[in-house]
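Request: Have a read of the protein record below and say how the chain folds.
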Amino acid sequence: MTEWPIDPAKGAARPGARATRREAYAPFEGSNIGAWLGFKHFMYLMEEAAIQHVREQWGGPGALWREYGLGVEIVDSSIRILTALHLDQLTRVEVR
C-alpha cells in the first residue's frame, strides 16, 4: 500500500516511464458514415487506452478509489485525425 497522501512526483509518469500500448477494433456501432468511423469513436479508443494505462501503472480506477479515495477523470484530451478509420481496421494507441 502506498503511503498517504500520494506524492505526485512518485505516482506521475516520468520521462523514461513505460508507455502503455493498446490494440483494439472500434465498436461496430461506430460505423455511422458507411464503413468509416465517426470522430467520437476515435475518442472512445483513446479513452480506453488511457484507462488501461491507469490499470497498468496504478492498479486501475477501482483500486485507486478503494485504497485512496481518488477518482480518475480525463479532463483534457485532443486528437488529430490524419486519415479515415474504417470498420474492421485494427488501431494502436500509445499512452505515456
